[in-house]
Design brief:
502 residues; alpha/beta; Aldehyde Dehydrogenase, Chain A, domain 1; Aldehyde Dehydrogenase, Chain A, domain 2; 5-stranded parallel β-sheet; 14 helices; binds 2-aminohexanedioic acid
């Protein structure tokens, strides 16, 4: 009997109006069973050229469209995303293996960023500043960049794309998107809805393109001078290839790369709340979020009790087919991820770690090509090399501390700097954690876990996380170029700095 996910995928694609470029270059597959869903044809060189040319042509029309009018496109897209939320979520479940609630949450992030971007379309503020010269005015104005290249990862097939796209579009840019090879169908559906929105509001043709291919296509985009910005979400390894390539041609990047996110649990913490916060962040999306909690730094006085309770909570997790709506933990993306998890656990135990629970593969008989695992907790004697490495699987390393500053130092002593949290009811500890001397991450939370950020804030992190910021706050500025304008409305020509000439 074929798994119902095959029919769900077909009907979701049909509902969203997708024509899949069928072929045999790449294969859409589902990690739920490990089966193939359909074969796809990769974007040809000629198609890539057409995409880049039309994205360039559309840009000249789009930048002349007033920003609030550009907002209408994103508003309509948000409406369609709301209407087809279940279909898109079904595709995300099929391709990324997310449980329905998390898949719907991902689509909700798209809808939310559309709302934000519509408002933003009337708020692309520049400043004015006093000129030192009489009869002069200084101001800054913000202008679109051009076609923006967006590269996204399998674990969030659609939300980071939407953070980039909704904002980049209202800023006046056009879009060329290369999704992960693991989640091409979700991408095609998302793009089809944007196409419908563009038609509905009469936006210029050629504003947005999906290109399909492997990493060589990402390299080609990184080298392409016609893409002034590359915004890439994925591993630090990927970023270390994209970053220098784009920099070599003086292009701009927004990099959102790996995390190695930790929570500090202090003795004053509300432990019931902390338990839930840690469990969701460590286990949600089967440990495959860039914001997944991978390290727990817990005060030695409460370590034993808290860890015991956490192990118990892990024992109640339902692991299995996410499409049934009955599991909390879906599959890993593929066998390579499982091997990575096994190798990390072996390295951790070789370093003196004690495996407290998890690590076993489950449902292997039913689904030999799918990789479901029991999330693992490992007590570590210290932060060894494997703890400092991001393994994209549900492994939580537990370390203890005595003094808060020691915990913060341990917290920051990893190459990555995406998300972080402290659980405490002591205001001094909480404030220290979010102060200059505290967490060095782009996201620092108090009494919530490391994952599940809202779109209103700027999203991204420091160090090997890449430094980029996407989504809310003033992240829009990355998608625009700034011009400083000095306007002389006098009849004189005084020079700045008192310089005399002619
Ligand atoms: C990612 O894993 O690439 O904060 C993005 C979160 C989500 C986004 C994660 N809002 O967990």
């Amino acid at each position: 009997m074929t798994h119902p996910i095959h029919d769900q995928v077909r009907s979701a694609l049909e509902a969203c109006g997708v024509t899949v470029p069928e072929g045999a270059d790449l294969h859409a597959r589902t990690p739920i069973t490990g089966e193939q869903l359909m074969g796809l044809r990769a974007t040809t060189d000629a198609e890539y050229e057409t995409a880049l040319t039309t994205a360039g042509e559309a840009f000249t029309a789009w930048r002349d469209t007033p920003a609030p009018v550009r907002g209408n496109l994103v508003k309509r897209w948000g409406e369609l995303l709301t209407e087809y939320k279940d279909d898109l979520a079904a595709l995300v479940t099929a391709e990324a293996g997310k449980i329905p609630s998390e898949a719907a949450g991902e689509v909700q992030e798209m809808i939310d960023i559309c709302d934000l971007a519509v408002g933003l379309s009337r708020q692309l503020f520049g400043r004015t500043m006093p000129s030192e010269r009489p009869g002069h005015r200084m101001m800054e104005t913000w202008h679109p960049l051009g076609p923006c290249g967006i590269i996204t990862a399998f674990n969030f097939p659609v939300a980071p794309y939407a953070w980039n796209t909704a904002v980049a579009l209202v800023c006046g840019n056009t879009i060329v998107w290369k999704p992960s090879e693991a989640t091409m169908l979700s991408a095609l559906a998302t793009d089809a809805l944007l196409g419908r929105a563009a038609k509905d509001v009469g936006a210029p043709e050629g504003l947005h393109h999906v290109v399909i291919g492997d990493r060589t296509l990402g390299e080609k985009m990184s080298d392409d001078e016609r893409l002034p910005l590359i915004s890439a979400t994925g591993s630090t390894r990927m970023g270390s290839e994209v970053g220098p390539r784009v920099a070599a041609r003086f292009g701009r990047t927004v990099l959102e790369l790996g995390g190695n996110n930790a929570a500090i649990v202090a003795p004053s913490a509300d432990l019931d709340l902390a338990l839930r916060g840690v469990a969701f962040a460590a286990v949600g999306t089967a440990g495959q979020r860039c914001t997944t909690m991978r390290r727990l730094i817990i005060h030695e006085d409460i370590a034993e009790e808290f860890t015991e309770r956490l192990v118990q909570a892990y024992g109640t997790l339902t692991i299995g087919d996410p499409s049934t709506g009955e599991s909390l933990v879906g599959p890993l993306v593929h066998g390579g991820a499982y091997e990575g998890m096994t190798a990390a656990l072996a390295a951790a135990t070789a370093d003196g770690g004690e495996l407290l629970c998890g690590g076993e593969r489950v449902h292997a008989e039913e689904y030999p090509e799918a990789y479901y695992v029991q999330p693992a907790i490992v007590r570590m004697p210290g932060q060894t090399e494997i703890v400092r490495t991001e393994t994209f699987a549900p492994i939580l390393y537990v370390m203890t501390y005595r003094e808060l500053d020691e915990a913060i130092a341990m917290h920051n002593d990893v190459p990555q700097g995406l998300s972080s949290a402290i659980f405490t009811t002591d205001v001094r500890e909480a404030e220290r954690f979010v102060s200059d001397a505290g967490s060095d991450c782009g996201i620092a939370n108090v009494n919530i876990g490391t994952s599940g950020a809202e779109i209103g804030g700027a999203f991204g992190g420091e160090k090997h996380t890449g430094g980029g910021r996407e989504s809310g706050s003033d992240a829009w500025r990355a998608y625009m170029r700034r011009a400083t304008n000095t306007v002389n409305y006098s009849n004189e020509l005084p020079l700045a700095q008192g310089v005399e000439f002619l």
